[in-house]
Amino acid sequence: MADMTGYTFGEKEQMADLLASEKFLAGNYCSFLSECATPEVVSALSELLMDTHRMQQRIFVEMNSRGWYPVTKAQEQKIAEAKQKFGTKIPS
Question: How wide is the angle at C-alpha 67 spanned by C-alphas 70 and 10, nearest 5°?
Answer without folding.
Answer: 120
